[in-house]
């Protein structure tokens, strides 16, 4: 006689999982002032920041419409960019995370900031040091004005 055993935890419906991820991604994009309706913009902003192989607009569209979930490496980069915890983006959870309160102090960078950092990295050491000193001076001046 064989007994039928019910699983202790029902398996997560992969369609639901992808759709839930899509909803969180769209919410994080909105909170970071990006359109959740533009796979082209998502792909462009992602590719500016990601050091691995670039994604296609088709891949970005699949993330936005709940047909696919990015790899863990890509998901971590998206979370860092949008200022949300990667585990929230992937699995859901706290509403604080949805509002960009990631608790780790990670800065959210706009694409112009990313380009500026890339430009800085291409400078020789002497010019990098000059740029750092100039930025520190501007920050001090800005802080004194407040």
Structural overview:
- The structure is a single chain.
- The chain is mainly α.
- It folds into two domains: 14-108, lambda repressor-like DNA-binding domains (434 Repressor (Amino-terminal Domain)); 110-146, no CATH class.
- It is 62% helix and 0% strand.
- It has helices spanning 14-31, 39-49, 57-64, 72-82, 86-91, 95-98, 111-121, 125-145.
Summarize the topology.
Blueprint: H1 14-31, H2 39-49, H3 57-64, H4 72-82, H5 86-91, H6 95-98, H7 111-121, H8 125-145
How many strands in all? 0
Summed over residues and divided by their number, the pLDDT gives a mean of: 81
Give me the number of helical elements. 8
The name of the CATH topology of the largest domain is 434 Repressor (Amino-terminal Domain)
* Low-pLDDT windows of residues: 5-12, 100-106
Major beta sheet summary: none
CATH architecture of the largest domain: Orthogonal Bundle
C-alpha end-to-end distance: 79 Å
Output the radius of gyration: 20 Å
Task: Give a brief rundown of this model.
This protein is mainly alpha-helical and 146 residues long.
Features of the shown structure:
2 domains; 146 residues; mainly alpha; 434 Repressor (Amino-terminal Domain)
């Amino acid at each position: 006689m064989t007994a039928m055993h019910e699983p202790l935890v029902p398996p997560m419906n992969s369609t639901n999982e992808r759709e839930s991820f899509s909803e969180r991604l769209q919410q994080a994009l909105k909170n970071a002032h990006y359109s959740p309706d533009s796979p082209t913009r998502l792909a462009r902003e992602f590719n500016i920041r990601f050091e691995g192989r670039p994604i296609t607009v088709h891949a970005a569209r699949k993330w936005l419409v709940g047909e696919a979930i990015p790899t863990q490496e890509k998901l971590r980069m998206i979370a860092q960019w949008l200022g949300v915890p990667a585990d929230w983006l992937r699995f859901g959870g706290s509403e604080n995370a949805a509002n960009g309160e990631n608790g780790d102090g990670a800065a959210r960078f706009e694409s112009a900031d990313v380009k500026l950092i890339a430009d800085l990295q291409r400078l020789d050491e002497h010019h990098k040091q000059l740029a750092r000193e100039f930025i520190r001076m501007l920050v001090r001046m800005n802080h004194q004005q407040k």
